[in-house]
Every structure is written in C-alpha cells, then in structure tokens.
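Service request form, structural biology core

Requester: graduate student, group of Dr. S.
Request type: structure prediction, single chain
Budget code: on file
Notes: please return the result as structure tokens.

Sequence provided:
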Amino acid sequence: MDIGLYGLGRMGGNMVTRLVGGGHRVVAGNRSRGPVDEHAAQGAVAAYTIEEMVGRLKAPRVLWSMVPAGDATEETLGEFAKHASKGDVLVDGANSYFRDSVRRASDLGTKGFRFVDVGVSGGIWGLELGYCMMVGGPEDAVAHLRPLLDTLAPPNGWARFGKSGAGHFVKMVHNGIEYGMMQAYGEGFELLHASEFGMDLHEVARVWNNGSVVRSWLLELAERAFEQEGTELEGIKGWVADSGEGRWTVNEAIAHDVPATVLAHALFARFTSRQEDSYAMKVAAALRAQFGGHAVKKE
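Core staff response, request fulfilled:
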C-alpha cells in the first residue's frame, strides 16, 4: 500500500522503516533533508516538500503527519490540505489534544478530506516490537488504513475507538496512567533505596519481573536502567518533563467529576521534580529515557 509520511524523528523514522520492511511504498518527507536521504537509501521514496510528497502518490492518498503536537501539526495538516484531493485520508499521529482533533476533523471534513487521529505508543522500541495504536475517525477511512495499521502494530495492537478525537482521547488517558505507574515505581524504589539493607535494586527489579503481580514492561525498563546506570542513577538528575497529556487527563477528570487522585499526584510530582532532586524522580527520568529516548538532565 502507498503512504506519505511526513516527520522522520524518533517515532516517524522508525515507522517508515517498519512500513518499508512490511512491503509498503512509503514516500518519506521531513523539514530537513538528511533524514529523507537516509530513509531513501533504505527503500523509501524521497520527498523534500509536502507538495512533492502529494505529487508522488495517487488518490485516494494517505498523508500521515508525525511531527510534534501543536503548531507543527497544525501547519503540516494545513499543507496536506493545500495540495491533497477530496477523499484523501489525513492522519495525525502526534500526541495531540483530542479537542484539537475534533476541530480538525470538522474543518478538514468541510473541505472533503477524511481525518483520522492515531495515538501511538511504543517509543523507540516500536520498530522492533510494533506500536500500540489508538485510532479515531470515520469507519471507511480507518478501514482504508488497515493494511498500514496491521504492519505498524503487533498482533491485536490497534483498534478504532470511535469518531475523530477518540484515538487521541484514549492516548491521553493512557499517558495519564503511565504517569501514575512511573510515579509508583519511583516512590517504591526510593523507599527501597532509603532502607538500611543496602540492597541491589537491579536485582529487585529482576525478581519482580518474574511472576510478580507488579511485573510490566516499565519494570523491565527499570531493570535495564539500573543495569546501565547503576543503583544510584548517578548520571541522571531527578527532573521530569511533562508533554501535556497528563495535564489534559487531569483537566478531563475534573470536567467529568472523576477522582483521578493518583494521576493528579503523579502530575504534580513532576512539577516538584523541577524544584528539588529526588531518587523517585531519578527513576522516572530514567524510565522516560528507556522507553521514549527522551533526554535526561545530567547531574
């Protein structure tokens, strides 16, 4: 199947590689030329502008944006619409605010385009393991995307959750839960670290990952982080960013009278991390680096 994918960062670039490996024809574009050349050498079709990308695809096209949420996504979708044809499927794979996705679906729909929002989880590991994909949009547009979604996701790793906006809503809550899980692991390991037993936290994580009710992929990444960085996590500062989804999740919980106490605490703990260094936030920072390749602040 043919697809134009614009935005060749950590996620988008690996998605192109996975799609090409799955036998799809991928027209790859990016604001800078280097990543385009790199992926063209690996089998993608190069496009150095969005206009060129659209011209290298036949209608009905799939034009997929993997640029950061916010202004960059707004500009990219606008450029897609400027050059695309009615009936084309325009996809936003960023961590966009779901209300922006509802608005974009309406705006683009009046111009004859089909808009699909896809929440993507999997980080830098998605190339190898596949991406969990949470999809919102018209049924016919999502059905058109099915071959691509089947290639990008592991078995049973994607689903349509409703009209446009639903995919990014599910991804927003997903990331809110992720905040809470990371905070729980961080606080637990901080208590272990503070105890008088001087225990090996890498060993704790290893044991918990074998049969424990708290085993998870995040805990596997904690085990990996302790192996790479050492129990003291000396090279990592306990400063943890938030990219918006946690705030939006808490705001929606307030709007719907849902007592999301764990999620709210985890969000505010990230704010606290920017004021004082703590071992729990070192763990959280290390986990973000492990699953998403996010930069950490060094001591």
